[in-house]
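Forwarding the complex inputs:
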Amino acid sequence: MIQRVTTQVDYLLREAFTGLRRNLWMIWSAVSTLAVLLFLLGLGLRASWQLQDAVSELGSRLEISIYLDPGVRAAAVEPDLRTLVGIDEIKSVSKEQAWAALKKDLGVRSDPGESLGGNPLVDSLRVRIAQPEAVAPLAAQIQQIEGVEEVSYGSEAAQRLDQIQQAMRWVGLALTAVLGVATVAVITSTIRLIVQSRRKEIEVMQLVGATPLRISMPFILEGLAFGVAGALIAWGLIEATSRVVAQKQLELLPFLQWQPSERAAFTLPLILLGVGIALGMLGSLIAVRRAIR
Amino acid sequence: MFDLPSTPTEADGTGFVGEAIACLHNVSKIYPNGCRGLYSVNLQIRKGDFLFITGPSGAGKSTLLKLLYGAEAPTEGHVEIEGNLFHRLRGRALAHLRRRIGVVFQDYQLIPTKTVEENVAVVLHAQGASRAEIQRRVGPTLRMVGLAPKAACFPDQLSGGEQQRVSIARAVVHTPPLLLADEPTGNLDAHNAWSVLQILKRLHDLGVTVIVTCHNEQLVEAFARRVVRLEAGILRELPVLT
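Prediction (whole assembly, two chains):
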Protein backbone atom coordinates (compact mmCIF):
# COMPACT_ATOMS: atom_id res chain seq x y z
CA MET A 1 0.00 0.00 0.00
CA ILE A 2 2.75 2.46 1.06
CA GLN A 3 4.79 1.47 -1.96
CA ARG A 4 1.80 2.08 -4.21
CA VAL A 5 1.24 5.55 -2.74
CA THR A 6 4.92 6.50 -3.07
CA THR A 7 4.90 5.24 -6.67
CA GLN A 8 1.88 7.41 -7.45
CA VAL A 9 3.35 10.49 -5.73
CA ASP A 10 6.70 9.94 -7.43
CA TYR A 11 5.02 9.67 -10.84
CA LEU A 12 2.75 12.70 -10.32
CA LEU A 13 5.56 14.95 -9.08
CA ARG A 14 7.84 13.89 -11.92
CA GLU A 15 5.13 14.56 -14.52
CA ALA A 16 4.24 17.92 -12.97
CA PHE A 17 7.90 18.95 -12.80
CA THR A 18 8.47 17.89 -16.43
CA GLY A 19 5.47 19.97 -17.50
CA LEU A 20 6.76 23.00 -15.62
CA ARG A 21 10.29 22.68 -17.01
CA ARG A 22 9.14 22.36 -20.62
CA ASN A 23 6.89 25.42 -20.65
CA LEU A 24 8.83 28.02 -18.70
CA TRP A 25 7.70 31.08 -20.67
CA MET A 26 4.03 30.17 -20.63
CA ILE A 27 4.30 29.49 -16.93
CA TRP A 28 5.99 32.81 -16.28
CA SER A 29 3.00 34.67 -17.75
CA ALA A 30 0.59 32.82 -15.45
CA VAL A 31 2.75 33.16 -12.35
CA SER A 32 3.44 36.86 -12.91
CA THR A 33 -0.28 37.60 -13.41
CA LEU A 34 -1.09 35.70 -10.26
CA ALA A 35 1.71 37.49 -8.39
CA VAL A 36 0.37 40.91 -9.46
CA LEU A 37 -3.14 39.98 -8.30
CA LEU A 38 -1.86 38.70 -4.96
CA PHE A 39 0.41 41.71 -4.59
CA LEU A 40 -2.54 44.10 -5.01
CA LEU A 41 -4.72 41.98 -2.76
CA GLY A 42 -1.98 41.85 -0.12
CA LEU A 43 -1.30 45.57 -0.26
CA GLY A 44 -5.01 46.33 -0.01
CA LEU A 45 -5.42 44.02 2.96
CA ARG A 46 -2.35 45.41 4.66
CA ALA A 47 -3.47 49.01 4.18
CA SER A 48 -6.97 48.12 5.40
CA TRP A 49 -5.58 46.45 8.53
CA GLN A 50 -3.25 49.37 9.17
CA LEU A 51 -6.17 51.75 8.91
CA GLN A 52 -8.25 49.55 11.18
CA ASP A 53 -5.48 49.59 13.77
CA ALA A 54 -5.22 53.38 13.44
CA VAL A 55 -8.98 53.72 14.00
CA SER A 56 -8.77 51.51 17.12
CA GLU A 57 -5.77 53.45 18.35
CA LEU A 58 -7.51 56.76 17.76
CA GLY A 59 -10.66 55.40 19.33
CA SER A 60 -8.81 54.32 22.44
CA ARG A 61 -7.41 57.81 22.77
CA LEU A 62 -10.80 59.42 22.45
CA GLU A 63 -12.35 61.21 25.35
CA ILE A 64 -15.72 62.75 25.93
CA SER A 65 -15.53 66.06 27.76
CA ILE A 66 -18.53 66.81 29.96
CA TYR A 67 -19.18 70.33 31.21
CA LEU A 68 -21.61 70.61 34.08
CA ASP A 69 -24.16 73.28 34.93
CA PRO A 70 -22.77 76.02 37.20
CA GLY A 71 -23.09 74.94 40.78
CA VAL A 72 -23.21 71.19 39.98
CA ARG A 73 -20.20 69.30 41.32
CA ALA A 74 -18.47 66.55 39.39
CA ALA A 75 -18.80 64.11 42.29
CA ALA A 76 -22.60 64.37 41.98
CA VAL A 77 -22.64 63.29 38.34
CA GLU A 78 -19.89 60.63 38.49
CA PRO A 79 -22.12 57.84 39.96
CA ASP A 80 -24.56 58.29 37.04
CA LEU A 81 -21.68 57.96 34.58
CA ARG A 82 -20.48 54.77 36.24
CA THR A 83 -23.80 53.09 35.44
CA LEU A 84 -23.14 53.46 31.70
CA VAL A 85 -21.62 50.57 29.75
CA GLY A 86 -18.51 51.10 27.60
CA ILE A 87 -16.69 53.63 29.72
CA ASP A 88 -13.07 52.79 30.53
CA GLU A 89 -12.06 55.62 32.81
CA ILE A 90 -13.59 58.73 34.38
CA LYS A 91 -11.49 61.69 35.40
CA SER A 92 -13.05 64.66 37.12
CA VAL A 93 -11.65 68.18 36.93
CA SER A 94 -13.01 70.60 39.51
CA LYS A 95 -13.56 74.20 38.54
CA GLU A 96 -10.80 75.16 40.98
CA GLN A 97 -8.31 72.86 39.30
CA ALA A 98 -9.37 74.13 35.87
CA TRP A 99 -9.07 77.74 37.04
CA ALA A 100 -5.56 77.13 38.39
CA ALA A 101 -4.51 75.41 35.18
CA LEU A 102 -5.92 78.24 33.08
CA LYS A 103 -4.12 80.85 35.15
CA LYS A 104 -0.89 78.87 34.75
CA ASP A 105 -1.41 78.58 31.00
CA LEU A 106 -2.08 82.32 30.69
CA GLY A 107 0.86 83.22 32.97
CA VAL A 108 -1.35 85.39 35.20
CA ARG A 109 -0.16 85.88 38.72
CA SER A 110 -2.90 88.17 40.06
CA ASP A 111 -6.37 86.69 40.44
CA PRO A 112 -8.44 87.76 37.41
CA GLY A 113 -11.46 86.30 39.19
CA GLU A 114 -11.76 89.41 41.22
CA SER A 115 -12.55 91.45 38.13
CA LEU A 116 -14.74 88.67 36.76
CA GLY A 117 -16.66 88.36 40.00
CA GLY A 118 -15.19 84.97 41.03
CA ASN A 119 -14.18 81.72 39.24
CA PRO A 120 -16.25 81.68 36.04
CA LEU A 121 -15.50 78.01 35.18
CA VAL A 122 -17.59 74.92 35.88
CA ASP A 123 -16.72 71.40 37.03
CA SER A 124 -15.97 69.05 34.16
CA LEU A 125 -15.37 65.34 33.62
CA ARG A 126 -13.31 63.48 31.02
CA VAL A 127 -14.50 60.06 30.08
CA ARG A 128 -12.38 57.56 28.16
CA ILE A 129 -14.24 55.18 25.81
CA ALA A 130 -13.04 51.72 24.75
CA GLN A 131 -14.73 51.39 21.33
CA PRO A 132 -14.85 54.25 18.82
CA GLU A 133 -18.33 53.23 17.63
CA ALA A 134 -19.60 53.60 21.25
CA VAL A 135 -18.59 57.26 21.49
CA ALA A 136 -21.61 58.85 19.80
CA PRO A 137 -24.31 56.80 21.61
CA LEU A 138 -22.60 57.31 24.98
CA ALA A 139 -22.32 61.05 24.38
CA ALA A 140 -26.06 61.16 23.69
CA GLN A 141 -26.78 59.22 26.89
CA ILE A 142 -24.51 61.48 28.94
CA GLN A 143 -26.25 64.55 27.57
CA GLN A 144 -29.46 63.29 29.18
CA ILE A 145 -27.93 63.16 32.68
CA GLU A 146 -29.17 65.92 34.94
CA GLY A 147 -26.62 68.62 35.65
CA VAL A 148 -24.79 68.12 32.34
CA GLU A 149 -24.67 71.29 30.31
CA GLU A 150 -22.52 70.34 27.37
CA VAL A 151 -20.89 67.24 25.95
CA SER A 152 -18.13 67.38 23.38
CA TYR A 153 -16.18 64.61 21.68
CA GLY A 154 -13.76 64.45 18.79
CA SER A 155 -14.80 61.19 17.18
CA GLU A 156 -15.37 62.71 13.77
CA ALA A 157 -11.85 61.82 12.68
CA ALA A 158 -12.31 58.27 13.86
CA GLN A 159 -15.64 58.01 12.06
CA ARG A 160 -14.06 59.30 8.85
CA LEU A 161 -11.23 56.80 9.13
CA ASP A 162 -13.75 54.06 9.73
CA GLN A 163 -15.72 55.11 6.65
CA ILE A 164 -12.54 55.15 4.56
CA GLN A 165 -11.68 51.70 5.83
CA GLN A 166 -15.15 50.38 4.96
CA ALA A 167 -14.92 51.87 1.48
CA MET A 168 -11.45 50.43 1.01
CA ARG A 169 -12.70 47.01 2.02
CA TRP A 170 -15.44 47.05 -0.65
CA VAL A 171 -13.20 48.51 -3.35
CA GLY A 172 -10.56 45.93 -2.44
CA LEU A 173 -13.06 43.08 -2.64
CA ALA A 174 -14.39 44.25 -6.01
CA LEU A 175 -10.85 44.68 -7.37
CA THR A 176 -9.84 41.25 -6.10
CA ALA A 177 -12.92 39.67 -7.69
CA VAL A 178 -12.26 41.27 -11.09
CA LEU A 179 -8.55 40.49 -11.03
CA GLY A 180 -9.33 37.00 -9.73
CA VAL A 181 -11.48 36.25 -12.78
CA ALA A 182 -8.75 37.62 -15.07
CA THR A 183 -6.11 35.53 -13.31
CA VAL A 184 -8.14 32.34 -13.57
CA ALA A 185 -8.58 33.08 -17.30
CA VAL A 186 -4.83 33.56 -17.79
CA ILE A 187 -4.01 30.39 -15.83
CA THR A 188 -6.66 28.44 -17.75
CA SER A 189 -5.16 29.62 -21.06
CA THR A 190 -1.65 28.78 -19.93
CA ILE A 191 -2.54 25.30 -18.71
CA ARG A 192 -4.58 24.78 -21.88
CA LEU A 193 -1.50 25.58 -23.95
CA ILE A 194 0.51 23.14 -21.86
CA VAL A 195 -2.24 20.53 -22.25
CA GLN A 196 -2.27 21.23 -26.00
CA SER A 197 1.49 20.76 -26.25
CA ARG A 198 1.03 17.38 -24.52
CA ARG A 199 -2.16 16.42 -26.32
CA LYS A 200 -0.62 13.39 -27.98
CA GLU A 201 0.62 12.11 -24.64
CA ILE A 202 -2.81 12.65 -23.09
CA GLU A 203 -4.53 10.84 -25.97
CA VAL A 204 -2.16 7.91 -25.63
CA MET A 205 -2.67 7.89 -21.86
CA GLN A 206 -6.45 7.82 -22.34
CA LEU A 207 -6.26 4.98 -24.86
CA VAL A 208 -4.00 2.83 -22.71
CA GLY A 209 -6.31 3.06 -19.72
CA ALA A 210 -5.21 5.99 -17.58
CA THR A 211 -8.08 7.22 -15.42
CA PRO A 212 -9.19 10.88 -15.87
CA LEU A 213 -7.90 11.66 -12.37
CA ARG A 214 -4.47 10.25 -13.20
CA ILE A 215 -4.27 12.32 -16.38
CA SER A 216 -5.42 15.54 -14.74
CA MET A 217 -3.46 15.34 -11.46
CA PRO A 218 -0.06 16.47 -12.85
CA PHE A 219 -1.75 19.55 -14.37
CA ILE A 220 -3.58 20.34 -11.14
CA LEU A 221 -0.27 20.05 -9.27
CA GLU A 222 1.20 22.47 -11.79
CA GLY A 223 -1.61 24.91 -10.98
CA LEU A 224 -0.84 24.48 -7.30
CA ALA A 225 2.83 25.26 -7.99
CA PHE A 226 1.73 28.44 -9.84
CA GLY A 227 -0.20 29.46 -6.74
CA VAL A 228 2.73 28.89 -4.39
CA ALA A 229 5.16 30.71 -6.69
CA GLY A 230 2.75 33.64 -7.21
CA ALA A 231 2.16 33.94 -3.44
CA LEU A 232 5.88 33.89 -2.65
CA ILE A 233 6.65 36.56 -5.26
CA ALA A 234 3.74 38.72 -4.07
CA TRP A 235 4.78 38.35 -0.43
CA GLY A 236 8.34 39.39 -1.29
CA LEU A 237 7.09 42.42 -3.24
CA ILE A 238 4.74 43.46 -0.43
CA GLU A 239 7.53 43.21 2.15
CA ALA A 240 9.89 45.23 -0.05
CA THR A 241 7.21 47.87 -0.73
CA SER A 242 6.33 48.12 2.96
CA ARG A 243 9.97 48.68 3.88
CA VAL A 244 10.37 51.42 1.28
CA VAL A 245 7.15 53.10 2.44
CA ALA A 246 8.17 52.85 6.11
CA GLN A 247 11.57 54.36 5.31
CA LYS A 248 10.00 57.24 3.35
CA GLN A 249 7.47 57.85 6.12
CA LEU A 250 10.25 58.11 8.69
CA GLU A 251 11.97 60.69 6.49
CA LEU A 252 8.94 62.72 5.48
CA LEU A 253 6.36 62.22 8.28
CA PRO A 254 8.36 61.28 11.38
CA PHE A 255 5.52 62.33 13.73
CA LEU A 256 3.30 59.52 12.37
CA GLN A 257 3.94 56.39 14.38
CA TRP A 258 2.16 53.54 12.66
CA GLN A 259 3.19 50.15 13.89
CA PRO A 260 3.04 47.31 11.34
CA SER A 261 0.04 45.09 12.05
CA GLU A 262 0.77 41.64 13.51
CA ARG A 263 -1.73 40.20 11.07
CA ALA A 264 0.52 41.36 8.24
CA ALA A 265 3.30 39.10 9.49
CA PHE A 266 1.34 35.87 9.93
CA THR A 267 -2.13 35.99 8.42
CA LEU A 268 -1.22 37.77 5.18
CA PRO A 269 1.22 35.12 3.85
CA LEU A 270 -1.35 32.44 4.64
CA ILE A 271 -4.11 34.35 2.84
CA LEU A 272 -1.86 34.93 -0.19
CA LEU A 273 -0.88 31.26 -0.27
CA GLY A 274 -4.48 30.11 0.09
CA VAL A 275 -5.86 32.43 -2.60
CA GLY A 276 -2.91 31.66 -4.92
CA ILE A 277 -3.30 27.89 -4.61
CA ALA A 278 -7.08 28.07 -4.99
CA LEU A 279 -6.88 30.20 -8.17
CA GLY A 280 -4.01 28.13 -9.63
CA MET A 281 -5.82 24.84 -9.09
CA LEU A 282 -9.14 26.23 -10.32
CA GLY A 283 -7.53 27.45 -13.57
CA SER A 284 -5.87 24.05 -14.11
CA LEU A 285 -9.04 22.17 -13.36
CA ILE A 286 -11.04 24.16 -15.92
CA ALA A 287 -8.35 23.70 -18.60
CA VAL A 288 -7.75 20.01 -18.09
CA ARG A 289 -11.40 19.08 -17.66
CA ARG A 290 -12.10 20.31 -21.18
CA ALA A 291 -9.08 18.49 -22.59
CA ILE A 292 -9.90 15.06 -21.21
CA ARG A 293 -13.62 15.23 -21.76
CA MET B 1 5.86 -12.53 -18.39
CA PHE B 2 2.95 -13.10 -20.76
CA ASP B 3 0.64 -14.82 -18.29
CA LEU B 4 -2.32 -14.65 -20.64
CA PRO B 5 -5.45 -16.74 -20.97
CA SER B 6 -4.73 -20.20 -22.28
CA THR B 7 -5.00 -20.69 -26.02
CA PRO B 8 -8.20 -22.47 -27.09
CA THR B 9 -7.52 -25.94 -28.32
CA GLU B 10 -10.54 -26.81 -30.42
CA ALA B 11 -10.77 -25.56 -33.99
CA ASP B 12 -13.59 -25.34 -36.47
CA GLY B 13 -14.01 -24.08 -39.99
CA THR B 14 -13.62 -20.42 -39.18
CA GLY B 15 -11.07 -20.46 -36.40
CA PHE B 16 -11.21 -21.25 -32.72
CA VAL B 17 -14.34 -22.15 -30.86
CA GLY B 18 -14.73 -20.37 -27.57
CA GLU B 19 -16.01 -17.43 -25.62
CA ALA B 20 -16.43 -14.15 -27.48
CA ILE B 21 -13.98 -11.43 -26.48
CA ALA B 22 -15.40 -8.73 -28.77
CA CYS B 23 -18.71 -8.34 -30.59
CA LEU B 24 -20.19 -5.78 -32.93
CA HIS B 25 -23.98 -5.93 -33.10
CA ASN B 26 -25.56 -4.17 -36.12
CA VAL B 27 -23.01 -1.43 -35.88
CA SER B 28 -23.26 1.55 -38.23
CA LYS B 29 -21.06 4.57 -38.11
CA ILE B 30 -21.90 7.80 -39.89
CA TYR B 31 -19.59 10.75 -39.22
CA PRO B 32 -21.07 14.22 -38.51
CA ASN B 33 -20.16 15.35 -42.04
CA GLY B 34 -22.40 12.60 -43.42
CA CYS B 35 -19.54 10.32 -44.42
CA ARG B 36 -20.47 6.65 -43.87
CA GLY B 37 -17.80 4.58 -42.12
CA LEU B 38 -19.60 1.30 -41.46
CA TYR B 39 -22.97 -0.10 -42.38
CA SER B 40 -24.79 -2.63 -40.17
CA VAL B 41 -21.73 -4.64 -39.25
CA ASN B 42 -22.06 -7.85 -37.24
CA LEU B 43 -18.84 -9.44 -36.09
CA GLN B 44 -17.89 -11.82 -33.33
CA ILE B 45 -14.28 -12.31 -32.31
CA ARG B 46 -13.54 -15.20 -30.01
CA LYS B 47 -10.79 -15.56 -27.47
CA GLY B 48 -7.66 -16.78 -29.22
CA ASP B 49 -8.70 -15.60 -32.69
CA PHE B 50 -6.19 -14.11 -35.10
CA LEU B 51 -8.38 -12.03 -37.37
CA PHE B 52 -7.36 -10.06 -40.43
CA ILE B 53 -9.61 -7.23 -41.58
CA THR B 54 -8.80 -6.43 -45.18
CA GLY B 55 -10.19 -4.03 -47.72
CA PRO B 56 -9.18 -1.01 -49.74
CA SER B 57 -8.28 2.34 -48.18
CA GLY B 58 -11.37 4.15 -46.90
CA ALA B 59 -13.37 0.91 -46.56
CA GLY B 60 -13.84 1.48 -42.80
CA LYS B 61 -11.07 -0.73 -41.34
CA SER B 62 -9.67 1.93 -38.99
CA THR B 63 -13.20 2.97 -38.03
CA LEU B 64 -13.95 -0.60 -37.02
CA LEU B 65 -10.83 -0.76 -34.84
CA LYS B 66 -11.59 2.66 -33.30
CA LEU B 67 -15.01 1.34 -32.34
CA LEU B 68 -13.34 -1.67 -30.75
CA TYR B 69 -11.07 0.43 -28.55
CA GLY B 70 -13.67 3.06 -27.81
CA ALA B 71 -12.11 6.03 -29.61
CA GLU B 72 -15.33 6.32 -31.64
CA ALA B 73 -18.91 5.60 -30.70
CA PRO B 74 -21.27 3.81 -33.11
CA THR B 75 -24.16 5.77 -34.59
CA GLU B 76 -26.30 2.62 -34.40
CA GLY B 77 -25.84 -0.75 -32.73
CA HIS B 78 -23.40 -1.52 -29.97
CA VAL B 79 -19.90 -2.74 -29.30
CA GLU B 80 -19.20 -5.29 -26.60
CA ILE B 81 -15.78 -6.11 -25.14
CA GLU B 82 -15.57 -9.02 -22.69
CA GLY B 83 -19.29 -8.62 -22.03
CA ASN B 84 -19.07 -4.84 -21.38
CA LEU B 85 -20.99 -2.45 -23.59
CA PHE B 86 -18.57 0.34 -24.49
CA HIS B 87 -21.19 3.08 -24.77
CA ARG B 88 -22.29 2.52 -21.19
CA LEU B 89 -18.83 3.10 -19.74
CA ARG B 90 -17.37 6.40 -18.54
CA GLY B 91 -14.37 7.59 -16.52
CA ARG B 92 -12.65 4.94 -14.44
CA ALA B 93 -14.70 2.02 -15.78
CA LEU B 94 -13.81 2.96 -19.37
CA ALA B 95 -10.14 3.37 -18.40
CA HIS B 96 -10.12 -0.07 -16.76
CA LEU B 97 -11.68 -1.74 -19.80
CA ARG B 98 -9.09 -0.09 -22.06
CA ARG B 99 -6.38 -1.72 -19.97
CA ARG B 100 -7.63 -5.04 -21.36
CA ILE B 101 -6.87 -3.87 -24.91
CA GLY B 102 -3.52 -3.15 -26.57
CA VAL B 103 -3.54 -0.87 -29.59
CA VAL B 104 -0.90 -0.61 -32.33
CA PHE B 105 -1.48 2.56 -34.31
CA GLN B 106 -0.85 2.93 -38.00
CA ASP B 107 1.11 6.15 -37.37
CA TYR B 108 2.78 4.66 -34.24
CA GLN B 109 1.61 7.52 -31.94
CA LEU B 110 4.89 7.58 -30.07
CA ILE B 111 5.65 10.52 -27.77
CA PRO B 112 8.59 12.29 -29.40
CA THR B 113 10.00 13.68 -26.15
CA LYS B 114 10.26 10.27 -24.50
CA THR B 115 12.81 7.53 -25.16
CA VAL B 116 11.83 4.09 -26.45
CA GLU B 117 11.91 2.74 -22.90
CA GLU B 118 9.78 5.64 -21.57
CA ASN B 119 7.28 5.33 -24.43
CA VAL B 120 6.74 1.69 -23.54
CA ALA B 121 6.60 2.48 -19.81
CA VAL B 122 3.87 5.12 -20.37
CA VAL B 123 1.22 2.39 -20.36
CA LEU B 124 2.39 1.01 -17.06
CA HIS B 125 2.68 4.48 -15.52
CA ALA B 126 -0.83 5.21 -16.73
CA GLN B 127 -2.05 2.08 -14.99
CA GLY B 128 -0.26 2.91 -11.74
CA ALA B 129 2.41 0.17 -11.85
CA SER B 130 5.34 0.43 -9.44
CA ARG B 131 8.85 1.29 -10.61
CA ALA B 132 10.02 -2.29 -9.98
CA GLU B 133 7.09 -3.68 -11.98
CA ILE B 134 7.85 -1.29 -14.84
CA GLN B 135 11.50 -2.38 -14.88
CA ARG B 136 10.49 -6.03 -14.73
CA ARG B 137 8.20 -5.71 -17.75
CA VAL B 138 9.81 -3.17 -20.08
CA GLY B 139 13.14 -5.00 -20.59
CA PRO B 140 11.70 -8.36 -21.72
CA THR B 141 9.11 -6.64 -23.92
CA LEU B 142 11.78 -4.63 -25.71
CA ARG B 143 13.86 -7.82 -26.13
CA MET B 144 10.83 -9.57 -27.62
CA VAL B 145 10.52 -6.93 -30.37
CA GLY B 146 14.31 -6.79 -30.80
CA LEU B 147 14.77 -3.25 -29.56
CA ALA B 148 16.60 -3.71 -26.25
CA PRO B 149 19.78 -2.06 -27.61
CA LYS B 150 17.77 1.01 -28.62
CA ALA B 151 15.97 1.52 -25.30
CA ALA B 152 17.55 4.94 -24.76
CA CYS B 153 16.87 6.24 -28.30
CA PHE B 154 14.17 8.80 -29.11
CA PRO B 155 11.55 7.93 -31.76
CA ASP B 156 13.08 10.24 -34.38
CA GLN B 157 16.32 8.25 -34.11
CA LEU B 158 14.55 5.07 -35.24
CA SER B 159 13.48 3.69 -38.63
CA GLY B 160 9.79 3.24 -39.46
CA GLY B 161 9.99 -0.50 -38.77
CA GLU B 162 11.63 0.11 -35.41
CA GLN B 163 9.03 2.71 -34.47
CA GLN B 164 6.31 0.23 -35.33
CA ARG B 165 7.96 -2.35 -33.09
CA VAL B 166 8.07 0.19 -30.24
CA SER B 167 4.37 0.72 -30.83
CA ILE B 168 3.81 -3.05 -30.58
CA ALA B 169 5.93 -3.23 -27.41
CA ARG B 170 3.83 -0.46 -25.87
CA ALA B 171 0.63 -2.23 -26.86
CA VAL B 172 1.57 -5.52 -25.20
CA VAL B 173 3.77 -4.52 -22.24
CA HIS B 174 0.78 -4.75 -19.88
CA THR B 175 -0.19 -8.17 -21.32
CA PRO B 176 -3.68 -7.33 -22.58
CA PRO B 177 -5.79 -10.28 -23.71
CA LEU B 178 -6.87 -8.38 -26.85
CA LEU B 179 -4.48 -6.72 -29.30
CA LEU B 180 -5.70 -4.41 -32.06
CA ALA B 181 -3.23 -3.45 -34.77
CA ASP B 182 -4.23 -0.80 -37.29
CA GLU B 183 -2.26 -1.32 -40.50
CA PRO B 184 0.89 -2.27 -38.61
CA THR B 185 2.61 -3.08 -41.89
CA GLY B 186 1.21 -0.13 -43.84
CA ASN B 187 4.32 2.03 -43.84
CA LEU B 188 6.90 -0.73 -43.87
CA ASP B 189 8.94 -2.53 -46.54
CA ALA B 190 8.29 -6.24 -47.14
CA HIS B 191 11.00 -7.42 -44.75
CA ASN B 192 9.90 -5.20 -41.86
CA ALA B 193 6.24 -5.98 -42.53
CA TRP B 194 6.93 -9.70 -42.32
CA SER B 195 8.93 -9.34 -39.08
CA VAL B 196 6.09 -7.29 -37.52
CA LEU B 197 3.58 -10.02 -38.45
CA GLN B 198 5.92 -12.61 -36.95
CA ILE B 199 5.88 -10.69 -33.65
CA LEU B 200 2.07 -10.59 -33.75
CA LYS B 201 2.01 -14.34 -34.46
CA ARG B 202 4.29 -14.97 -31.48
CA LEU B 203 1.92 -12.97 -29.25
CA HIS B 204 -1.02 -14.95 -30.62
CA ASP B 205 0.81 -18.17 -29.82
CA LEU B 206 1.12 -16.89 -26.24
CA GLY B 207 -2.68 -16.60 -26.06
CA VAL B 208 -3.37 -13.02 -27.13
CA THR B 209 -6.41 -12.44 -29.34
CA VAL B 210 -5.12 -10.42 -32.29
CA ILE B 211 -7.10 -8.28 -34.75
CA VAL B 212 -5.11 -6.78 -37.57
CA THR B 213 -6.22 -4.47 -40.36
CA CYS B 214 -4.18 -4.85 -43.50
CA HIS B 215 -4.76 -3.77 -47.08
CA ASN B 216 -1.92 -5.95 -48.42
CA GLU B 217 -3.84 -9.06 -49.54
CA GLN B 218 -0.69 -10.95 -50.46
CA LEU B 219 0.60 -10.61 -46.92
CA VAL B 220 -2.72 -11.81 -45.55
CA GLU B 221 -2.81 -14.80 -47.90
CA ALA B 222 0.71 -15.74 -46.91
CA PHE B 223 -0.32 -15.70 -43.26
CA ALA B 224 -3.31 -18.09 -43.52
CA ARG B 225 -5.75 -16.86 -40.85
CA ARG B 226 -9.40 -15.93 -40.41
CA VAL B 227 -10.11 -12.99 -42.72
CA VAL B 228 -13.02 -10.55 -43.05
CA ARG B 229 -13.24 -8.03 -45.83
CA LEU B 230 -14.66 -4.53 -45.62
CA GLU B 231 -15.85 -2.72 -48.70
CA ALA B 232 -17.58 0.66 -48.50
CA GLY B 233 -18.43 -0.02 -44.86
CA ILE B 234 -19.97 -3.44 -45.48
CA LEU B 235 -18.37 -6.50 -43.88
CA ARG B 236 -17.99 -9.90 -45.56
CA GLU B 237 -16.45 -13.01 -44.03
CA LEU B 238 -13.96 -14.75 -46.33
CA PRO B 239 -13.18 -18.47 -46.27
CA VAL B 240 -10.40 -19.35 -43.84
CA LEU B 241 -7.05 -19.43 -45.56
CA THR B 242 -5.07 -22.56 -45.01
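The interface with chain A takes residues 69, 71, 91-92, 95-99, 103, 109, 111, 113, 122-123, 125-131, 170, 174 of chain B (CB under 8 Å).
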